[in-house]
Specification:
By secondary structure, the chain is mainly alpha-helical. It has one domain (about 5-240). It is built from 12 helices and no strands. Helix 6 packs antiparallel against helix 8 and helix 8 crosses helix 12. The chain is globular, with a radius of gyration of 19 Å. The protein starts with a helix and ends in a 6-residue tail after the last helix.
Length: about 240
């Protein structure tokens, strides 16, 4: 079964146009757009760097040779995936290329691939936790600054960084190709199940795209992201004694 990718891109482009019109029609829509940019740059950059770093530590120098072991956003941004993340809420960076045959043999190749795949989402969760702590610290120790316009905008940017990183991390853990979750799952499957999954990867990709286009993925993922954000906010606020009920 094959679907022309040009048709898929056309459908996604129409979705993006609709999302852009909705954003610009909102009050303060442009400000909301600007506030999301730092979060997107940080989320994608650290996500892809984590993949490259994990592969390098496991013995594969491919990312190092391709210049991916850095925190320069322009090294890691995929134009289309970045636009999707801005306007659709879900997206991706430029994939980090690896050569599993270069991995050391301390663990199996499938486990090593799973570790590299998991490194990106794990990094996003770490970034989200760090910036949530910063947000709570600002509110707790600099309440006068927080109540100023500049303080409010800065905290809004920080909260956007938290939400974007949680969203990118959770989204990529969906166990469908081409997302990281499929590689993580594959690393723990029995040999025959792994081969079956690999041989049907194109079908799974089509299922993923279809679920995305019709909005089912959003219906599933959005509540999880909200739950994770609310839970993280509650824990951090409790830690700083902010008294959130």
């Amino acid at each position: 079964m094959y679907i022309d990718r040009r048709i898929i891109f056309l459908i996604i482009a129409l979705m993006l146009f609709s999302s852009l019109m909705t954003l610009l029609s909102r009050e303060n829509g442009l400000l909301s757009f600007v506030i999301t940019i730092p979060g997107i740059l940080i989320a994608i950059t650290f996500h892809e760097f984590a993949h490259a770093f994990a592969a390098d530590r496991l013995g594969d120098d491919t990312p190092r040779r391709q210049g991916r072991l850095n925190l320069n956003p322009f090294t890691h941004l995929d134009p289309f995936g970045t636009i999707m993340l801005v306007f659709a809420g879900f997206g991706w960076g430029k994939p980090v290329e690896i050569n599993p045959r270069n991995f050391n043999r301390d663990i199996s190749l499938s486990k090593a691939e799973a570790i590299v795949a998991a490194a990106g989402p794990i990094m996003n969760f770490i970034i989200a936790i760090i910036f949530e702590i910063i947000s709570c610290a600002v509110i707790r120790f600099a309440p006068e600054f927080y109540l100023t316009r500049a303080g409010f905008v800065i905290v809004a940017v920080i909260n956007s960084i938290v939400i974007t990183n949680l969203g990118l991390g959770i989204f990529n853990l969906i166990p469908l190709p081409p997302l990281d979750g499929s590689k993580v799952l594959s690393g723990f499957l029995p040999y025959n199940a792994k081969n079956w999954m690999d041989s049907h990867s194109q079908i799974f990709e089509i299922i993923f795209i279809a679920l995305w286009i019709v909005g089912i993925l959003s219906l599933i993922i959005s509540p999880i992201i909200s739950w994770a954000y609310n839970g993280l906010t509650y824990l951090c606020a409790s830690m700083f004694g902010l008294g959130i009920g």
